[in-house]
Specification:
Blueprint: H1 3-18, H2 22-27, H3 38-42, H4 49-66, H5 81-91, H6 93-103, H7 106-126, H8 134-157
Helix pairs in contact: 4-7, 4-8, 5-7, 5-8, 6-7, 7-8
């Protein structure tokens, strides 16, 4: 793929999701008033689609730098509080999806994805992934992969595409 084609694909992918108010609509409780705020919707921080897309692309960049995929059979070692917090947050996905399936309150899924992204960010800041000793590195790569899959699946359920690079 040419550099231009890659840039166009990235721009189209993030723009398509970011420039429509779908996430902003879905992340708000439908029983409350909603104010259309383009600056907030397009921000790379906070509870926005671009922030979640950025979190996903950030995880993908870890794997590009690592030059390897996560080993699905790697043991998960929870040696730091941030690792434990991320693992616990990941375990909540199925329950949130089941709740949303029943209630159709999509803001609950959006809120979960935002919590997951911020929990991953804290994990990434406190727990070196690529510089960790081998066994710990494999565990952290697996946590990162599980987070990326969960973000991708959750965003897909909300109708939002993920992009590998932003």
């Amino acid at each position: 793929m040419t550099a231009r084609a890659e840039r166009d694909r990235r721009t189209h992918g993030s723009g398509k999701a970011a420039h429509r108010p779908a996430y902003a609509d879905l992340s708000a409780d439908r029983a409350k008033d909603h104010v259309l705020d383009w600056e907030r919707m397009l921000a790379l921080v906070g509870d926005t689609a671009p922030y979640l897309q950025y979190a996903y692309s950030r995880i993908r960049s870890v794997f590009r730098r690592a030059g390897t995929a996560a080993r699905p059979d790697a043991p998960v070692l929870l040696t730091e509080p941030a690792e434990r917090a991320l693992a616990i947050e990941l375990l909540g996905f199925a329950a949130v999806v089941a709740e949303v399936e029943w209630s159709l309150e999509f803001h609950r899924l959006a809120g979960y994805l935002h919590r997951l992204a911020t929990t991953f960010s804290a994990f990434y800041e406190r727990c070196p992934v690529l510089r960790a000793p081998d066994e710990l590195r494999e565990s952290r790569l697996l946590l990162a992969e599980l987070t990326a899959r969960t973000l991708r699946h959750g965003l897909h359920l909300l109708g939002i595409r993920t992009v590998r690079r932003m």
